[in-house]
Amino acid sequence: MVFPRFFFLASDDLLMLLAQTKDPRAVQPHMDKCFEGIQSVQFSDKDEVYGIVSAEKEIVPLQKSINVNEGDKKGNVEKWMLEIEGVMVKTLRMMTKEANQDFVKTDLENWVDKWPGQVVLAVDQINWTLGVEKAFGDQDL
């Protein structure tokens, strides 16, 4: 119940994941089943998760590292996975705000290369919608 995304794992995957709680890196083969678009996470030598990696090898550094052995997270994969989810959302929200501000300052080709794909799609949709609203607002219907 702590990490509801586990409900979407096959029983075999869930049992394998929970049986290997002493090795936090054992979660890697299951990341894409828990989070769409995330192939793996980056671990430091001190077992801190500091980034997420897509299947296309696009790396997004997290706003805050997560120590998977700190406090009650040690041996409780569901607790640190829940923290990864929260930090990931905060990181992408912050990046989206920054990318949206950068959208008007940078030429499109460089801007697309500068930001993660998910952020590029979100900001592009925001600006497209604003453009459509402006176009309709300028028309006398």
Number of domains: 1
CATH homologous superfamily designation: Dynein motor heavy chain, linker domain, subdomain 3
Give me the CATH architecture, please. Answer: Alpha-Beta Barrel
- What structural class do the secondary elements suggest? alpha+beta
Q: Could you give a short account of the major beta sheet?
A: 3 strands, antiparallel
| CA gyration radius, whole angstroms | 19 Å
Number of strands: 3
Low-confidence stretches: none
- Within the CATH hierarchy, at the fold level, what is the topology? Split barrel-like
**Range of strand content:** 5-15%
> Secondary-structure element sequence?
HHEEEHHH
From the N-terminal CA to the C-terminal CA, the straight-line distance is 52 Å
Shape estimate: elongated
Q: Kindly state the percentage of residues in helix.
A: 40-55%
- Count of separate DSSP helical elements: 5
CATH class: Alpha Beta
Across the major sheet, the strand order is 1-2-3
